[in-house]
Amino acid sequence: MGLATFKGGIHPYEGKELSENKPVQELLPKGELVYPMSQHIGAPAKPLVKKGDRVLVGQKIGEAGGFISANVICSVSGTVKAVEPRLVVSGQMVTSIIVENDGLYETIPHFGEDRDYTKLSKEEIRNIVKEAGIVGLGGAGFPTHVKLTPKDESKIDYILVNGAECEPYLTSDYRMMMEEPEKIVGGLKVILSLFDNAKGVIGIENNKPEGIKKLQELVKDEPRIEVRELLTKYPQGGERSLIYAITGRSVNSSMLPADAGCIVDNIDTVIAIYNAVCKQTPLIRKIITITGDAIANPQNFNVKLGTNYQELVAAAGGFKTEPEKIISGGPMMGMALFTIDVPVAKTSSALTCFTKDMVAAQAPTPCIRCGRCVAACPSHIVPPMMMKAALKNDCAAFEKVNGMECMECGSCTYVCPAKRPLTQAFKDMRKQVAANRRKKA
């Protein structure tokens, strides 16, 4: 069988050699912890604690504020200093719980104890995932318990584990394949127990041969699980790209993966499910890649949620030279930061620091109609027509040329010889169209 892939895409410089062979180091926070109540898609969580309260590791301090929402769990023990707005990666001020870490890491009862998932009902498993505050840890932040509760579970026939990690420079998922592959398989088996008709497929790009080998060995006697080797190409890890590559099924912007009989979770989300269900450990940590040519010692860290990004940079040896650009995430889909005085959240994946800002150094010029963006687009839409609508701020025209099918992957901007800010324009237009639709609704 050939390598699974999709039509379109690009091959950016990977940059993974900076951190891929360095084992994950646990980093214990020194300063205060900041827990934003909005670390997920949907309604913000509601604070359950107040200033002066003592909190424990594993304690629920924020309660889901609706069906599409997620709990927030404390990752240290200590005292609540305040409940107030704090700056987050997006640049917004978000209501947050600030905890002074006492360094004792006292836990709630039964925290970390083994539990046999085969003795739990489907409803109990879904409730455990909900209580654990698990969301999509690949960056999307969609509440996982909602994803695991489709309208008709009998119509789900694929559970896809996204191990592509196609974003340049990021290596946290790869390190988990190398260091905790049993938890990946264990978490997938927990999910499969919820869907009687489903097959589990772990999709991994072929630039990770050791990860593929480890997981193939682990699942060789698992009849419901297989490992599929994917062609290394960006954005192979995009949800729609992955579904098409493995199943041949197409998903558009008006559909959920469940409409195509699929549920997709990334590597770390599956591990989080294993930890919550089998180890009674809610979501309190992230594996974060600190990398880029401005970082002294690029590394992956096991980090407590709420830790300040400044502590991560210090643990990676600090900056070799003052970076011109710092990105939360990777260079293709990450978000540029003007400060690193922000907390690690559930949707954090990496901090990529560059000595030079190559984007700012290149002024855009008019479109030369070369068609490279059209060839690269994994959604098979026409970026020049979308940009024409965006420049006129014409939402109706943007929708008419299927602009809402854009994945915001950045492939068009990457290949554009005119250096036009295509992706940023499309992001802004998609937000406007979505806002207009909400008003009409």
Q: Record the strand order, biggest sheet.
A: 1-14-13-17-15-16
Distance between the termini: 46 Å
Characterize the biggest β-sheet. 6 strands, mixed
Structural class: alpha/beta
Find the count of extended strands (DSSP E, 2+ residues).
17
Extract low-pLDDT stretches: none
Order of helices and strands: EEEEEEEEHHEHHEHEHEHEEHEEEHHHHH
The helix fraction, in percent, is 25-40%
Mean pLDDT: 96
What fraction strand? 15-25%
Number of continuous helical runs: 13
What is the overall silhouette?
Answer: globular
What gyration radius follows from the Cα positions, in whole Å?
21 Å
Offer a quick outline of the entry.
The chain has helices spanning 122-131, 144-147, 172-179, 181-192, 209-219, 239-247, 267-279, 309-315, 372-376, 383-391, 395-400, 411-415, 422-440, and strands spanning 25-27, 33-36, 46-47, 54-55, 60-63, 72-73, 78-87, 93-101, 158-163, 199-205, 225-230, 262-266, 285-291, 299-304, 325-328, 335-336, 350-354. By secondary structure, the chain is α/β, with parallel strands linked by helices.
